[in-house]
Structure formats: structure tokens, C-alpha cells
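User: I'm putting together a small comparison set for a docking exercise, and I want a reference complex before I start. The sequence is below, and the ligand is PRP. Could you produce the 3D structure with the ligand included, as C-alpha cells?
Assistant: Of course. I'll restate your input first, then give the C-alpha cells for the complex.
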Amino acid sequence: MLRIAVPNKGSLATAAAQMLAEAGYRQRTDPKDLVCHDPVNDVEFFYLRPRDIATYVGSGDLDLGITGRDLLVDSGSPAQEVLDLGFGAATFRFAAAPGTLADTAGLAGRRIATSYPGVVGGYLAKRSVDAEVIRLDGAVENAVRLGVADVVADVVQTGTTLRQAGLVVVGEPILDSSAVLITRDGSADGAAAGQLLRRLQGVLVARRYVMLVYDVPADLLDQASALTPGIESPTISPLHREGWIAVQAMVKRGDVHRVMDDLYELGARALLVTDIHACRL
Ligand SMILES: Nc1ncnc2c1ncn2[C@@H]1O[C@H](COP(=O)(O)OP(=O)(O)OP(=O)(O)O)[C@@H](O)[C@H]1O
Ligand SMILES: O=P(O)(O)OC[C@H]1O[C@H](OP(=O)(O)OP(=O)(O)O)[C@H](O)[C@@H]1O
Ligand SMILES: [Mg+2]
């Protein structure tokens, strides 16, 4: 049986469970449950703190896990990223009070507060910067005004928390994070793991694309196909109406209205867009 770690709470928990449910896996109904068995797919889900997930997967005690890239890096675990899951996007950045730190070259000798000492320590070691890392559990943005640190290094999503603490970002992001599927080399090589990976890839495609269907005069097919090349090639069907054909193609969700405008201009009619519920490419 495949054993998978899923965030039990925090920013990634709801979206991770939602994605697994869309991929056809059973998920817990009570948010307090710590385990959920899916007998149909022969999978067991363990709900764990996202910070601990890389440890369980890295040790080989669990086969696969969903966590944040920043948490994976921070853990120093030998687990590896196998798929970017497209949610939980955030950057990890340094921040300080305005005018106190111009760029990351000025970090030497500073006190840096963070809940991610592995990420920050790795960044400093790589650049041979000697600074003091102060490990805090959370709400690290308070550390500067309370005099515990000169700089913070933390997750930034909207930037609201930094703004409210009177801090500004310094330098380029230390890393770009998002939710990722992780495994340890060789611990998830079986058919069930391959099936999970394909199902999650299918969910990503179903979220990114819509299905566009339209009718077009046959002599405009080449121009229409150039606008809707699909992923491999558009599907063409004859219409009862002489000289017209129906075209069906997957189109990126964000592009579909522009593509429909262009097709209409070209002479296409009866343009219909539908969501893709699931897919396997
Ligand atoms: N707005 C956000 N705040 C914190 N983490 C976020 C945010 N958006 C995405 N993430 C990602 O979520 C993961 C952290 O989740 P985790 O559950 O440990 O912390 P949290 O969401 O801050 O929850 P809590 O602090 O309540 O325990 C990281 O990978 C982080 O990059
Ligand atoms: O850029 P933003 O949209 O403001 O989000 C980022 C903030 O959210 C998280 O804090 P959280 O509320 O989880 O508290 P914590 O620091 O105690 O984890 C994170 O640690 C940042 O502080
Ligand atoms: Mg937090």
C-alpha cells in the first residue's frame, strides 16, 4: 500500500486535499483525523505538519508527500521534488526597516530572525557571509521592532504582514516556493506511485486548459488550426453543412477569450468553451 504525507493544517492543507480529491482519492471528512485509508486505490494518507513531511519522506517511512519547496530545502532531507503542484506560491525573502540595509551584501554581522534556519544558513554559507541566525517559531516580522534582530527572512505572499510591521524587502528572493510532491529515490517507484503522479499531472492540465469547440469554413482550417494548435493537434470532424467543419482543441484557460475573438474575426462560429474535469495525456 502506498503511504502519502499530506499537510494537516496551515496554508497548504485545504488545497492539497482538494487536489487529491480531484485526482480521485478519498480524503478525510473530519479535519482532526490524522489518517485516511482509501481502499479503492490502496493508498493511506497521513496528515502531518508540512514542516515534518520532508523528514518522514526523506527517511523512507512514507513513500510520497506534499509540502512546500521552502520547507523541503529547510529540512535538509534527502527527499526530492518530483512535481510542482501549482498552488501555495510564495517567495522567501529578507526584509528590514527602511534605510537600514541596502542589499544582501550588507548582511555580514547582522542578526537575522527566521523560522527557516536551514534556508537562511544555506544561503549565507554559499556566499561565505558571517551573520547570526536567530531561530523563531513564527511572527518573525515582530523581531525587528522588538530589537531581537536587525533583519528577518520569511515567507512573503501578499506582502501585507511585512508592510504592517513597517519592513521592506531587501535583495532578490532567496527562493521561489510552491507546493511540491516529494519522494525519496527509489521509495516510490511502483505502479501505484506512477498512477498518483499521472493523476496529479492530469489535474494540473485540467486546471490550466479548457476545451474549445467551433465550426469554421473548410478553406479557413489552416488559419484556424494555427490559432488553436491544441496540445498535439486539433480534432477535425465533418459537419452536415457543406463546406464547413467542426474543430475541437485544448486552449490555455487564460488565452481562451482572445483566441475566440480571433477565431470569430476569421469566420468561425458556434464557439463553445467547456471545463475539463479530468484528463490523462
Ligand atoms: N501566506 C502564506 N503564509 C505562510 N506560508 C505560506 C503562505 N503561502 C504559501 N505558504 C507556504 O506554505 C508553507 C508553510 O505552511 P505551514 O503550514 O508550515 O505554515 P503556515 O501556513 O504559516 O501555518 P501556521 O503558521 O498557521 O502553522 C510554506 O511552504 C510556505 O511557502
Ligand atoms: O505576505 P503575506 O500575505 O502577509 O503572508 C506572509 C505571512 O504569512 C505567514 O505568517 P502566518 O500568518 O502563518 O504566521 P506565522 O508567522 O506565525 O507562521 C508568513 O510567516 C508571513 O508572516
Ligand atoms: Mg505561518
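The chain has a mean pLDDT of 96. The radius of gyration is 24 Å.
User: Thanks, that's exactly what I needed.
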